[in-house]
Amino acid sequence: MKIAVCVKQVPDSWAEKKMVNGLLDRENVDAVLNDLDEYAVEEALRIAEAHGGNEEGGAHTVTVISMGPDRATEAVRKALSMGANDAILVSDSALAGSDALATSAILAKVIADGGYDLVICGTESTDARMSVVPAMLSARLGWAQLTFASKVTVDPAGKVSITRVTEAGVDEISAAFPAVISVVEKINEPRYPSFKGIMAAKKKVIDQKDLAAVGASAQSAWSQVNDATPRPARAAGVKVTDEGNGGQDLVNFLAEKKLI
Amino acid sequence: MSTVLILADFSSDKATKTTAELATAGARIGSVTAVVLAGSGKGAALAATVNQGPIANVLVVESDDFASHGVAASADALASLVKEKSPAAVLIASHAFGKEVAARVAVLTESGIITDAVDVAADCTATQLVFGGSTTVHSKVSHGVAIITVRPNSVEADLSASSPAITNGTATIGSDAKKATISSSQPPVKGGRPELTEANIVVSGGRGTDGNFAPVEAFADSLGAAVGASRAATDAGWYPHSHQVGQTGKTVSPQLYVACGISGAIQHRAGMQTSKTIVVVNKDPEAPLFDIADFGVIGDLFNVLPKATEGITARTN
C-alpha cells in the first residue's frame, strides 16, 4: 500500500496568536506539527505495521505531504522521526495566504500524481479549525470520503472501513481504495519519536517542490478578512470562599443574573 | 429579491432550533429557501417540522443516497441546487456534517467558504471569533456564492411560526459521491441531556472531580444543562471524549458555563471563553480560570455542588 499523510505546521497552541493584514501572523510564533496530525501519522504507521510494516524495500510506504514555508520542514521532520518513509513539501512564496480551497487544490494535485491508495489527515488544524480540507480533497480527487474515523480497518487488497463518530452519531462506512480518511483524536496514542527515529529522520528525503515542480498555479483566497479586532479581556468578577455557603452563594448569583 | 438557501438541520426527524437560526440570519440577505434532504417517502414529514423562523419556501429533495452515502451525496445535491438557483448565499449549520457538506459544495460550485460564523450581516459579511474567542474577525466571500457555516446557538433565532410553501425538487448525485457506503448509523446516545454545542447551560468537570462526575451531572440536571469535560478528564477516561470542551474538543458558547474543578489551561479556555456568563468552582484559589469568571467559588466541588443543586431544586419546586 502507498499511504500519504497530510500534515500542517501551525503556531504552538500555547502561543498568543495575532492577525496582521488579514492573515494569521505565523512569523513571530513558535511553530509545531499540528497536534491532530500526529494521530494521522500514527494511524498510517499502524496500518502499515499491521500488514508487514513500512521498512525500506517493503510492501508499504508512508509519505508525509505538506504545504508551507521552508520552516515547515521542522514539522515534516517530526512526522518522519515517528517513522514515515519520506516526504513532499510544497513551498512557494506565491502560496502565502492560501485559503483551504487553494491548499486542497495543491495537495490534491500532489496526491493524484503520487498514486496513493489512502490519504490520512487529522480532523482539523488547531489554527484555522475549519475541518474542511479532508472533504475538499475527497471532492477534488473524486475519492471516497471516510472522515471523523475513530477506528480504521484496512484490507490491503483494496478495501477500507471506518467507524465515523460525530455529534450526529456513529456510522459504519466502507469503500474501495483510493480513499481520503480523517482520524479523530483518541483513535490512537501517537508514539514519541525514538532517538533512533530522530537520527534516521535526518537522512530521510524531503522532496521540496515549488509550484512549477508540482505543475500547479497559485489561486488567490476566495474569502477576505475585512477587519480583525482583539476582544477586550474578560475581567474577573466576584470571588467568594466556600465556608459552607458557597453552594447557596452560587445559586443566589444565578438568580440575580436571572439565569435560573 | 435575492434568494438564500439554508440546509435545514434535523435531530430525531425534527427541525432543530439551528434551522430557525440559519433562517433568521438568511432572511437579512434575501428570501429564505430551506432545503430538506430526505430519504424516499420521508420528505413531507420532515418538511412539516420546518415551521419556525422567516422561511419563505421549503424545497424537498428525496433520495436514499443521503442515508447510504452521507456527506458526499448531500453535498452533491445541495451543489446542484446552488447551480440551479444561483442564491446570494448558502447557510449551513457549523457541525462536522455541515462543515464537510459546505466544504464539498464550495469545491463543486467554485465558491469561497467561511466556517464557524457567529453572525451574518445583510451584505453577507460573516463575524467569526477566532483564536479561542480572543479576536473578532469580519470577513466576506469574494468568489462565487457565499458558502457560510453558522455556529449553533450564536444567532438569536426568530422562532415565530411560519408556513412556507413546500415544493419537491430533484438534484443530481454523481457517481464519485457514492464511493463510500454507510452500512449502519446509530443516533447519538442522548442520556436525556441537551446536546453540548446547542445547550443554553453547560456544566463541566475536570481534574478536580477525581473521576467522580456524579455531583457535576446532578448539578447539570438541576439546571437542565449539558455536561462537558476538560481534556484532563477525558484523557483519564473519566468522561467520554465526545464531551470534551476545548481547543481539540468542542467549542461552546452558552448563556452560562459552569467549570468545576477545571484549572483553565489556554486550550480549555479556547473552547468556552465566549460563553456569556462564566462561573468557576475550584478549591485552588490560584486556578487561572478564576481570572475570566463572572462568579467564582473557592471551594471543594464535592461540598459546593450538592448544596447548589439543593438550592436550585428548592427554587424550582
Automatic annotation (TrEMBL), chain A:
GO molecular function: electron transfer activity
Ranges where the Electron transfer flavoprotein alpha/beta-subunit N-terminal domain occurs: 21-218
Record CDD domains: ETF_beta
Keyword Electron transport: yes
Keyword tags: Electron transport, Transport
GO CC, any one term: cytosol
Keyword Electron transport: yes
Family stated for the protein in its record: Belongs to the ETF beta-subunit/FixA family.
Name of the molecule in the record: Unannotated protein
Biological source species: freshwater metagenome
Automatic annotation (TrEMBL), chain B:
Annotated stretches, region: Disordered: 177-196
Electron transfer flavoprotein alpha/beta-subunit N-terminal domain ranges (all copies): 4-177
InterPro entries with a match to the protein in the record: DHS-like_NAD/FAD-binding_dom, ETF_a/b_N, ETF_a/FixB, ETF_asu_C, Rossmann-like_a/b/a_fold
Pfam families registered for this protein in UniProt: ETF, ETF_alpha
Keyword Flavoprotein: yes
GO biological processes: fatty acid beta-oxidation using acyl-CoA dehydrogenase
UniProt KW Flavoprotein keyword: yes
SUPFAM superfamilies, per database record: Adenine nucleotide alpha hydrolases-like, DHS-like NAD/FAD-binding domain
UniProt KW keywords: FAD, Flavoprotein
Residues in the signal sequence: none
Molecular functions (GO terms): electron transfer activity; flavin adenine dinucleotide binding
Listed transmembrane segments: none
SMART domains: ETF (SM00893)
Family: Belongs to the ETF alpha-subunit/FixB family.
Name under which the protein is recorded: Unannotated protein
Organism the protein comes from: freshwater metagenome
